[in-house]
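User: I'm curious what two different proteins look like when written out as structure tokens. Can you demonstrate?

Assistant: Sure. I'll show them one after the other, since each token string lines up with its own sequence. Here's the first protein:
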Amino acid sequence: MGKLSEKMWSALNEQVKYEMESGYLYLGMASWLNDQAFPGFAHWMRVQAGEEMHHAQKMYKYIEERGNRVELLPIAAPPKTWDSVEDVMKKSLSLEKLVSGLINKLVDIAAAEKDHATSIFLQWFVTEQVEEEETFRTVLDQLKMVKSTCSAMIYLDNHMAKRGE
């Protein structure tokens, strides 16, 4: 099978960066949510950050398994504040949609290069992104339903705290 092509290797390194950047952003969001007295949402977002780091590690390991060296790229610092819990979830959903598009581009590169192993490897990420987008959409829909009603927000925050790690 051999090493990854230069194009595939470069694109996978970029994706490792995006996955780590997503995790870093979600940690920043978790800190802000905690500061806003939403410990359940903060917990939920910390778990999400861990998932993104896991995604980065899966890609990292795959690059090495193919005989290539991982090149870690710089990641951006996340914002420090958001307008609301709903704003956090809207921005998170937008990010997940961006990541889905990036994964799809990786699949396109693998197909164009007839890199069947990478194509198969990436299918897990394609499925995962469908789940990620659906999860954020559901939370956002629930936030829109409660319309910042205090008791409903407290209930939703308690529900978010139950997310397993």
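Here's a second, unrelated protein for contrast:
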Amino acid sequence: MYLIALCDDEVEQLHKTEQIFTQYRAHHLTEDFRIERFENAGALLEMIEKQGYLPDLIMMDIYMPDQLGIEAARELRRMGNRSRIVFLTTSKDFALDAYEVEASQYLIKPLSSKTLFPLLDRFLEEIGEERRKYILIRIEGKVQRIAVDDIVYCEAQGKTQCLHFANGTQCMLRITMAKIAQMLSPYPEFMRVGIAYLVNMEHIECISKLEIQMDTGRKIYPPRGAYQAVREKYFAYYCGE
């Protein structure tokens, strides 16, 4: 499923854009779009900040009475939101500003299937590639997108799990190790080490009978008797087995 946010103070324009999405969906029956409509930037920002809404794509008018789309985009970036943003406008006056907030594209109204369909094709391709390397996790009440490559290992600590990241930070999650393992199961670089650890083999520097040295300087101490199995999994992964 792809979450799409349409933000425009003109209801007619919202309706027209949604119609183009409907036309596109008719030719891509395997793709599921959930569209949310917003008639002002404030409503969009509030839903993202307070309800943890994480749209994959935001299509936003630049000229809106309560807040310019460019200003709303700056606020989103300050909030840490990395959604793709496509600006819709009747003028090219804000082209440099759109570049500043890392907008994916800048489309001139009126929209048509001829202009929007190629953008959506590229969007599906890029998002599909990214989703193969990201997971969504609720952290401190907010859903956050975590890059799989950034996860060094997960450590069970009682009823919580501690994720250790490549930049040295960590976070506590109130979910089971089984749930984390399920979320990371599509990624062959992760292996279980005993019942307490789930390790990203891309971050392993060396393995001995007593410890696993990670590239962040952290050490993992596997349970007694686990060395042979860990060693075999590690070499099998790097040999492409």
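A detail about the second structure: The mean pLDDT is 87.
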